[in-house]
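Lecture 7 notes: from sequence to structure.

We start with a single chain of 225 residues. Read the sequence below before looking at the structure.
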Amino acid sequence: MAGAGVIDDYVTALDRRLRGPAPVKGDLLAEARDSLHDAAAAHREGGLTEEAAQRRAVAEFGPVGTIAREYQGVLGLAYGARTLRSVMVVLPLAYVMWELNRKFWIGAWADFDAPPPDWYLTIARFNDTSAWLVAGAAVLALLIGRRLARTAVSTTTLARLAGVVAAGAVGVSVLGNVAILAATAYLDASRLLLTPPVAAATVLSFAIALRLAVLARRCLVFSSV
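Now the structure, written as tokens:
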């Protein structure tokens, strides 16, 4: 390994170990590179050669594995916060989109032939409020996470908590949608024969939930070190 490339090789090895949002990752790597070059410059002024100065700077900075664990926690937390913000905004918007579509193309729901049982009404109310519940949970998680970030709680722990909350929020949303579809099919399957625009909105809602589920899974992956 050439002396002039000691820092470059170190940063490259660090880069290979990190997973997460490219902008945040780039900032962390740039910060590491700048710190190493500053330290190497100080050692050169102290009389070391270029190679020795870079090796000393790298040794003082810390092993790649140790620094990678610290940086990975930061990356996981950044991705977790971004995912929670997506949950907070996208799921309510998807619900509003579906409801507006339904009102435009279908209008008010026709009454059942007989009054629906209480369990069906409970499922319907749960489905109607699930988007707002999960949005509230995402907001609460972001606020609590911001407060905990000022304490001794590690970024890795906060990133995992963000992933768990995001995964749970998506799960609740999907559960509400699936439950109301299954319950409606049980009482009156003909109601599931929606107009093409409403059916498309339904498919889009599930696609959005699936995408958010992928993001939530990545939160947990990126927080693992």
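The chain is about 80% helix and 0% strand. Keep this in mind for problem set 3.
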